[in-house]
Amino acid sequence: MDDLGELYQQVILDHNRRPRHFGKLTAPSRSAEGHNPICGDHITVYVRTDGDQIAEVSFEGSGCAISRASASLMTQAVSGKPAQEAEKLFRDFQAMVTGDPAVATGAREVERLGKLAALAGVRAFPSRIKCATLAWHALHAALSEAGSVSTE
Amino acid sequence: MTPLNAETLLAAPAANRFDVARVREDFPILQRLVNGRPLVYLDNAATSQKPRTVIEALNRYYSMENANVHRGVHYLSEQATAAYERARRRVQRFLHARDSSEIIFVRGTTEAINLVANTYGRSRVRPGDEIVVSAMEHPSYIVPWQMLCEAQGGRLRVIPMNDAGDLLLDEYERLLNPRVRLVAVTHVSNALGTMNPVKEMIAVAHARGIPVLLDGAQAAPHREVDVQALDCDFYTFSGHKTFGPTGIGILYGKAALLEEMPPFQGGGDMIRSVTFERTEYAPIPAKFEAGTPSIADAIGLEAAIDYLERLDRPLMEAHEAELLRHATEALAPIPGLRMIGAAREKTGLVSFVLDGIHAHDVGTIADRDGIALRAGHHCAQPVMERFGVPATARASFAFYNTHEEIDALVAAVHRARQIFG
């Protein structure tokens, strides 16, 4: 498979076309906006926490296939998880897409990232890393109640 | 001083058409590969590529001629000063300005606009006064006026446009009330390619005694500009979009206006005499050129203009129009593709969106084929909002682009559709 095939895997295309947990939560306890001013990607992540747990998470907004699919996959990955675990996942995910060799090539790490590993192809496209991490930055801002983030 | 590639430029073309293949040989970067494919550079509205003569002019200046201007009595300083002032006269002829003192060297269009906003604007705009801009302005054309209005208590008014991307001239006329101190519009839109009827717009403003500033960043590389025929009060363009170096741009202003305006930045070169009590400013253009200017880049711009003017302009414009026609005809029928901007008169630029495929993804897919496109809101968020799209893919052409490159763009769009099924 060539670079483009690695990037636009079926799982990415599917989540882009039919994003999961798309739309506003009815009663979010927190939310944060993520904005990528270079390409105009703009999303909002909504979280309903239950104690330390992420009980529910959703997102809305517009963006490229990578940012949408990444947001969608993220909502699946962090639903029902403790906030701390979501933050850990964010760090691992970031290391994977930025090509940190300790993470990127470790099969065990990819295994732990689960479906998120579908975004590993972003490594070959430095200009797209911000797209892949936008939702995660917004989630992080929501969890730390920062309000809004920009990837610039 | 600027050697021309005589073989390339003066040779008569085989037929009565623009000889793209020969022109391309003058641009070293066009020979390189990107992602293993020949570079297809379709991002000329962001910046243009440089002919060898420009690169050589910079190299020669730094290798042989470098010295500060307007200072020393030594040989090199005199040479550098002469070269710098010769470049100014070259720009004067390029814009058909009346006098070379009306040509101010700045860093680029953005700085030129900030200069006018901070000098002309600050001295003329009072609370309740208005500045008129258009709905298709680049942010560098909106923000300085917003800052000015905020500082002076003025108001920014916007000329609306229709769905094709043409300004509504009736609305424009209605905006021109006695509170308007300046009309600041783009000559050619960077997002839509619209060529505005600026001559007509200037006449309408002048009938009411309102001066006009034109942003020529996207016009100067493609059309002959005659500031006296247009009768504009200010005109700006950037060297780097006009096949010259970065770091140099031009503000043209009518001498009477420039002379009245307070200086922009303070520093060396812009003073006649200075004591701790008072400074007497230098006459124009020096009044607006504080500090050591971008000497090499001014000389590089001269080389770019020399290059551009050695081309057969009518054939060049016809070639660019053909590229636009080809791109429009090949892209428009693609299912799910929507062209953004269909103005009556356009320069070589196509902006488009694809159903279900974000511009950023189109950009990445094209890049794998070595095609440089702009994907995003092109520093024109208000324009994107007007058309209800978050971002577009934009291909902008220069005279060195070919029909094969348009075919490559079309193929990349088909590839994107294939990937996204």
Largest sheet of chain A: 4 strands, mixed
Q: Which percent range describes the beta-strand content of chain B? A: 15-25%
Question: How many β-strand runs of chain B?
Answer: 17
Oligomer: heterodimer
Strand numbers in spatial order across the main sheet of chain A: 3-2-1-4
Report on this model:
The complex is a heterodimer of chains A (152) and B (421). Chain A has helices at residues 3-7, 10-17, 65-78, 83-97, 101-104, 107-113, 129-143, and strands at residues 30-36, 41-50, 53-62, 148-150. Chain A has 152 residues and is α+β, with helices and mostly antiparallel strands. Chain A is built from seven helices and four strands. In chain A, strands 3-2-1-4 form a four-stranded mixed beta sheet, covered by helices on one side. Mean pLDDT of chain B is 93; it is low at 6-13. Chain B has two domains: 6-50 and 312-419, Aspartate Aminotransferase, domain 1 (Alpha-Beta Complex); 57-308, Type I PLP-dependent aspartate aminotransferase-like (Major domain) (Aspartate Aminotransferase, domain 2). In chain B, strand 8 (212-215), helix 9 and strand 9 (234-238) form a beta-alpha-beta unit. The longest helix of chain B has 21 residues, at 75-95. Chain A binds chain B through residues 2-4, 7-8, 13, 16-17, 38-42, 62-66, 125, 127-128, 131, and chain B through 356-361, 364-365, 368, 375-377, 381, 384, 390-391, 419-421.
